[in-house]
Structures are given as C-alpha cells and as structure tokens.
Specification:
With 298 residues, this protein is of the alpha/beta class. It is built from ten helices and 13 strands. The structure holds uridine 5'-triphosphate (UTP). Uridine 5'-triphosphate (UTP) binds next to helix 4.
Length: 298
C-alpha cells in the first residue's frame, strides 16, 4: 500500500508494562502480569508479534520494579540454546522471542501514576515521531491483526487512532469511551471519526457504548499535553484525558477491529482466551474440546 508522503510511518511502539497487576495476586507478586502465558506464549509475546506484523521496528517497554523477566524473555538465552543444541533439540520454539539487536529499549516508570504517565516516561525515545501503544493484557486475535488494520487506515488518513469495540451499556464506566462522529467512506464502516473521549464515564453520561480497547496510534504532540496533564479518574494521569485535547487540532479516528478481543487483565477473560486459543490450535483442539465437554458434563 502506498503511504501519502505527508504521513510519517509508524515505526515505534510503546508497551506500558509498569502496572502492579493487582487483580492477579499472588501470581503477579514476583512475575509480571505480562509474562502470564496463554498456552505457551506470554501475553507480551502476542503483543510484540502483532506489532511486528504491523511493520513496527522499535519496541519501547515502560517497565517498573520486578519486571525484568519481560526484558529477559526477549534476550538471547545462551546457556539454554547451547544445551538444547548439544542435545540435538530444535530452537524453533524460541524464534518469536528474538529481537533485532538494538530494537528493544526500556525506560522505567518509578511510580505507577497511570497510563498517561507511563507513556510520558517514554518521551525521550518517542521524540518527534508518531508511535503505537499496546496494552498487552488486551489480547487481540485476528487476520489481519488489530494494529495492522489500524496502520493500514493510518497510512491513508494520518493523525491519531484508537481501536474500539462495542460493549453493553452497563460496562462503559470501566473504560475510556468515544463520542463517535462520521464514518468515512471506503473503509467498510470500520473507521469512525472521534469527536470526544471520556475516561470511565457514568453510564448515563457516556457518549456511546464504544470503548477504547488497548491499541493506539498517536502523534508526538500528545507528549506535550501529558507534560502538564492533571490527575483524572482514579487519581491517575489518564492517557484518555490527554488524547481528548488533540481532538479538533488533529485528525482522530477509531478503528473497529475485525477480530476477537480478550480482556486478559481479568481472570475470566484470561480463562476465555486460553480456552478459545486452545480450541483454534490444530495440535491440541481435539483434546481440549474433549476435556471441556467432560468438565461441562456434555
Ligand atoms: P491496568 O489498569 O490493567 O492496571 O493497566 P494493572 O496495574 O496492570 O493491573 P491491575 O488493575 O492492578 O490488576 C493497563 C496497562 O497500563 C499499564 C499496565 O502495565 C497495563 O499494561 N500501566 C498502568 C502502567 O504501565 N503504568 C501505570 O501507572 C498504570
């Protein structure tokens, strides 16, 4: 696809992984939430795979205390590889965890003051470039992947993007919610103009039931806004509040992802994702279906 010469390509992605993961305690006391595996890949791996598919080259991890396992995961495991090679074992399973030297950067968020603050902590690496954001506990499965779908739309219209999905009205107050505008032609109805954004609105005040779902493409100007952004909902520096200030000054669109989204930050969502992905895998689908039927008494 040709990219308009005035649109800077998205080559950088920020992965905010400095949260405390309190909903999964005690599992996440010593292991980062992002390292919890869905079958045989940690959550962070799915997000990195999705980023690579979308053409992202530089991965910026915003980490905090106790999160070093995430960086280790993408490092060369010399002893492991040497031992496996010595025993004649294939190293294919390690392939996805390899990163081009120099393409992984980490910055620390000393105190988890909120998602907006986590992104601001990456400002020196983001510089003056557009960048993607992935919340790895939101698992997006589809072909093309969610970020690829967003980047394809971005390459045509530029500006800022969030991915959105419809939820029942009763659930909107847990999320960032968009006020939708026009649907530009030529995108099969998957692209919506964003006229407003509000974090965790009361159900009766929510502008729609379209929630922001863990994937963003933002212009670097959002960093200037975050520099002076006050605390918002939950006493945290909210990315949604800073993004809302871009509306009207820069194009802002939402993409409705064509695939499935699993909220792996919640225990039920995590179990659902594990089961759904297992049922899609040729190497285990039959066995897992039989187990599920037995457990359900079917
Ligand atoms: P969550 O709201 O899911 O918070 O953050 P959490 O701490 O990870 O999990 P719980 O709610 O305590 O169980 C959404 C994303 O933003 C990151 C988290 O790591 C997660 O990827 N985050 C959040 C930060 O990096 N820093 C923060 O200050 C807050």
């Amino acid at each position: 696809m040709t990219i308009s010469s005035s649109i800077k390509p998205v080559r950088k992605a920020v992965f905010p992984v400095a949260g405390l993961g309190t909903r999964f305690l005690p599992a996440t006391k010593a292991i980062p939430k992002e390292m919890l595996p869905i079958i045989d890949r940690p959550l962070i791996q799915y997000a990195v795979d999705e980023a690579r598919e979308a053409g992202i080259e530089q991965l910026i991890f915003v980490t905090g205390r106790g999160k070093t396992a995430i960086v280790e995961h993408f490092d060369t495991a010399f002893e492991l590889e040497a031992t496996m090679t010595g025993r004649g074992k294939s190293l294919t399973a390690l392939e996805p965890s390899r990163i081009q030297p120099g393409n992984l950067v980490t910055v620390r968020q000393q105190v988890p003051l909120g998602l907006g603050h986590a992104i601001w902590c990456a400002r020196a690496i983001i510089g003056n470039d557009p960048f993607a954001i992935f919340l790895p506990d939101e698992l997006m499965i589809g072909t093309p992947g969610c970020m690829k779908q967003m980047v394809d739309a971005y390459n045509q219209v530029g500006g800022n993007f969030v991915s959105v999905l419809e939820v029942p009205r009763d659930e909107v107050s847990s999320y960032g919610v968009i006020a939708p505008g026009a649907r530009p032609e030529g995108f099969d109805g998957t692209l919506t103009e964003v006229k407003g954004l509000v974090e965790k609105p009361k159900k009766e005040e929510a502008p729609s039931n379209l929630i922001v779902s863990g994937r963003y493409i933002l212009q670097p100007e959002v960093i200037d806004i975050l520099t002076t952004q006050e605390k918002g909902a939950g006493g945290e520096i909210q990315l949604t509040d800073a993004m809302a200030k871009l509306i009207g000054n820069q194009p802002f669109h939402a993409v409705t992802f064509g695939g499935k989204r699993y909220d792996c930050g919640s225990k039920t969502g995590f179990v659902e994702a594990t089961l759904a992905l297992a049922l899609e895998r040729p190497d285990m689908a039959d066995e897992v279906r039989a187990v599920a039927k037995r457990l359900l008494g079917l």
